[in-house]
């Protein structure tokens, strides 16, 4: 597979994160894929937001899990944008999506949508939680998955293999050549996040990563030498 440039929550460096506006801008900027995050609303909707609470990215307060979708729709997610649901993103952009899930409960709802809409070829599901990766792999035959980590031990490659994840998404600031080589030796792809500077891009090239997640559309242009 060729090198992938993935828009982080759309292009959150220049647009409100995890909004349709941000996702459309990422597609227009030529990103290869878009990364987003899912939580469940009180009434079971797949809500696109990174945090478990709405406080940081909207004009509201409180946990997503305690609000219905209708209540969440009333909030401003930045520049007049409303909090989208996953199905709206599927219809708004045509790019492949890298979808981060927070737990096994989200995995079960997402699996239902993926099967009904035949999304196996379009969606890569990621999580920091080993159990969530294991769950989606069990529910959706052929799904592509990645184990995410910010800090990790020497067993990170073995953890990915144990849950059936063919890829790792790892914090670029802590990545070492040893980890990348170990992963590649075991047939795993390695994505670095978040790659926002020229120094990060040089590190991506030196480590021979398979892709990078970025907040800024210009990284797609200036980083083409990594392909």
As laid out across the biggest beta sheet, the strand order is 1-2-4-5-6-7-8-9
Our count of helices gives 9
- The strand count comes to 9
Oligomer: single chain
CATH homology superfamily name: Phosphatidylinositol (PI) phosphodiesterase
Helix content: 25-40%
SSE topology:
Elements: E1 4-8, H1 20-28, E2 33-40, E3 46-48, H2 69-73, H3 86-92, E4 97-101, H4 104-116, E5 123-127, H5 130-139, E6 144-149, H6 156-163, E7 167-171, H7 177-185, E8 189-193, H8 198-207, E9 211-214, H9 218-222
Parallel strand pairs: 1-2, 1-9, 2-4, 4-5, 5-6, 6-7, 7-8, 8-9
Antiparallel strand pairs: 2-3
Helix pairs in contact: 4-5
Protein name: Glycerophosphodiester phosphodiesterase
Pfam families: GDPD
InterPro entries: GP_PDE_dom (IPR030395), PLC-like_Pdiesterase_TIM-brl (IPR017946)
Could you characterize what this model shows?
With 227 residues, this protein is an alpha/beta fold. It has a single domain (4-214), classed as Phosphatidylinositol (PI) phosphodiesterase (TIM Barrel, Alpha-Beta Barrel). Helix content is 33%, strand content 20%. Strands 1-2-4-5-6-7-8-9 form an 8-stranded parallel beta barrel, surrounded by 5 helices. The radius of gyration is 17 Å and the shape is globular. It starts with a strand and ends in a 5-residue tail after the last helix.
Please give a handful of descriptors for the protein shown.
9 helices, 9 strands, 227 residues, alpha/beta, GP_PDE_dom, eight-stranded parallel beta barrel, TIM Barrel, phosphoric diester hydrolase activity, Glycerophosphodiester phosphodiesterase, globular, 33% helix
């Amino acid at each position: 597979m060729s090198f992938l440039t993935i828009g982080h929550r759309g292009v959150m460096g220049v647009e409100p994160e995890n909004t349709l506006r941000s996702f459309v801008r990422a597609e227009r900027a030529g990103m290869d894929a878009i990364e987003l995050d899912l939580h469940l609303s009180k009434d079971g909707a797949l809500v696109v937001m990174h945090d478990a609470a709405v406080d940081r990215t909207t004009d509201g307060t409180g946990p997503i899990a305690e609000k219905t979708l209708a209540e969440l729709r009333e909030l401003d997610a930045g520049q007049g944008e409303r909090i989208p649901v996953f199905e709206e993103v599927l219809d708004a952009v045509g790019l492949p999506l890298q979808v981060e899930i927070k737990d096994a409960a989200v995995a079960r709802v997402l699996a239902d949508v993926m099967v009904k809409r035949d999304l196996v070829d379009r969606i890569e599901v990621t999580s920091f939680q080993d159990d969530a990766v294991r769950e989606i792999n069990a529910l959706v035959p052929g799904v592509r998955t990645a184990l995410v980590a910010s800090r990790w031990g020497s067993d990170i490659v073995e953890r990915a293999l144990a849950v059936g994840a063919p890829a790792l998404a790892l914090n670029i600031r802590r990545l070492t050549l040893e980890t990348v080589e170990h992963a590649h030796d075991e047939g795993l792809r390695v994505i670095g996040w978040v790659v926002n500077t020229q120094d990060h891009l040089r590190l991506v090239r030196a480590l021979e990563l398979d892709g990078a997640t970025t907040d800024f559309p210009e990284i797609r242009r200036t980083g083409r030498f990594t392909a």
